[in-house]
Amino acid sequence: MDKTVNQKAWFLVLPVFLVVAFSAVLPLMTVVNYSMQDTFGNNQFFWNGVGWFKELLDPSTDLGGRFLASLGRNLFFSLVILAIEVPLGIVVALSMPRQGWTVAACLVILALPLLIPWNVVGTIWQIFGRPDIGLLGYVLNAAGFDYNYVSNDIDAWVTVIVMDVWHWTSLVALLCYAGLKSIPEAYYQAAQIDGASRWAVFKAIQLPKMNRVLLIAVLLRFMDSFMIYTEPFVVTGGGPGNSTTFVSIELVKIALGQFDLGKAAALSLVYNLIILIVCWIFYTVMTNAGVERKVQAESEPAAEPKPATAIKPVPALKPKEGVA
Amino acid sequence: MHSIPGRRLIMGLFLIFLLLPIYWLVNMSFKTNSEIVSTMTLWPHTPTLQHYKRIFTDESWYSGYIHSLEYVVLNTIISISVALPAAYAFSRYRFLGDKHLFFWLLSNRMAPAAVYALPFFNLYSAIGLFDTPWAVALAHCIFNVPLAVWILEGFVSGVPREIDETAFLDGYSFPRFFIKILVPLIASGIGVAAFFCFMFSWVELLLARTLTSVSAKPIAAIMTRTVSASGMDWGLLAAAGVLTIIPGALVIWFVRNYIASGFALGRV
């Protein structure tokens, strides 16, 4: 892809630039402004320099302690989410029916949780998990588990994680399904002639083809779980205690709850910076992966399953279908 | 052969896992409040439409749906119309700072809404847009415009460059080429981008709630009113929840054939 250099293209980008700058740069300047000042109310501000940032990054202060604790919780949450949703999404994508009306039906049901407003997702699980009126809570308690997400830390965590898996695994699954759909039938036929096992087909054909969409999936899931706010807020309100208070919840508490503008602004900037860095890493990896793939595609044939004996063959997984 | 053994079972279990909580919400919305609180029933034994009736007759309730749809539609139109030319530019040309600009846009998609809640409140109050659908529509542009550019760029790149060149040789002016040739070619891509804009604007609550108070309050924020002195009105809450699922379900039904390629954002 050789693009022509044309500076006039800026005119085409200008509307986007203006719209996003209006919604991103102006508010960000306000945040930077607040982060350097302190206020006693009445719109009287005085200069505080980097005081808030120092406090924020020092775990011994109240603000720093709260920030770092919520950051730790949030990172742990994001990692757990990725560890569950990515493999599960791949499995679900591989389980999609091949053709017929069931494909459309499965796609529609899979996409359904994605289109539910986030606070309604929270409401659904809030109701579903309640021991008195919710099916899940009722069944678990009837089965002898002492499950109550309002008072027990671990139950609250499990509820929030299961809720996120319910909400977002479909996104990973749909992305992977799109990747799988793009694989030409000839690849599978070649693999079958070579006698490749099911696992080899997955490793040598399907996984590489899903590479790019999987990166998009991981990027989106990491970012969205890192700034999760509404769903856990509705279900647990950040509790019990502070056990499910993620960074966004802490931030809103400080900004809109206590109206502590300076602290909130400093937290916002650091939070944004972390996201920016992670985003940049992903972006670089993604762009490089694209380039590498192109180079690879040119130097070697795409479908080159390893000999089936090298990998533990699973007899039941042998391809059943003949040549289409 | 691109599926795995036991796939019917896995798919079945996963779909049940997805549908069960939704079923429970629907189930509750048809129950009377006394039935919800007093007994555990798998289906409504005394089915009632009272909660739905209340939502459809009480203006403070149904106006929430209208407000939500207003800003979602506004946002989708703004996002797509500014993103289209930009997507073309990113796909076809190299220009000063293009990569940085693209990354900057993308990073805004990832910016946490919580960071912007307060500054947006100040900004839109200052310019007099507070509590209008415009405020929410513009605020949602911060994540929908980058996403639309990203998706559309993938689809525009799928159109061979020769088509542009032929059109220009045939004497098409740029705007005419854009509307007459390019837009029809990537119509499905525009559909997918619009779907995503609709989706993310429809599900977002934090900004929508912060930027409105009375006359543009979205339904999702109105739902929080079901907590009253006499306790939670669970049935009403469930009914309102069910009604927020319906627009999304309708939109999915219309784009079901494009979902797969759409979710790959035009680049597999």
TrEMBL record, chain A:
| Pfam families per record | BPD_transp_1
Organism whose genome encodes this protein: Bradyrhizobium nanningense
Q: What is this protein called?
A: ABC transporter permease
Q: PROSITE patterns annotated for this entry? A: ABC_TM1 (PS50928)
**PANTHER family (UniProt xref):** GLUCOSE IMPORT SYSTEM PERMEASE PROTEIN GLCT, TREHALOSE TRANSPORT SYSTEM PERMEASE PROTEIN SUGA
Which segments show compositional bias classed as Low complexity? 298-310
One Gene Ontology cellular component term attached to this UniProt record is: plasma membrane
Source superkingdom: Bacteria
Enumerate the UniProt keywords alphabetically. Answer: Membrane, Transmembrane, Transmembrane helix, Transport
Membrane-related topology note: Multi-pass membrane protein
UniProtKB/TrEMBL annotation, chain B:
UniProt KW keywords? Cell membrane, Membrane, Transmembrane, Transmembrane helix, Transport
What kind of membrane protein is this, topologically?
Answer: Multi-pass membrane protein
Task: List the transmembrane segments.
Answer: 9-26, 71-90, 102-122, 134-156, 177-203, 234-255
The protein, known as: Sugar ABC transporter permease
Fetch the Gene3D superfamilies from UniProt.
MetI-like
Report which superkingdom the organism of origin falls in. Answer: Bacteria
Report the source organism: Bradyrhizobium nanningense
Q: Which GO terms describe its cellular component?
A: plasma membrane
Q: Where in the cell is it found?
A: Cell membrane
List the lineage, top down.
Bacteria, Pseudomonadati, Pseudomonadota, Alphaproteobacteria, Hyphomicrobiales
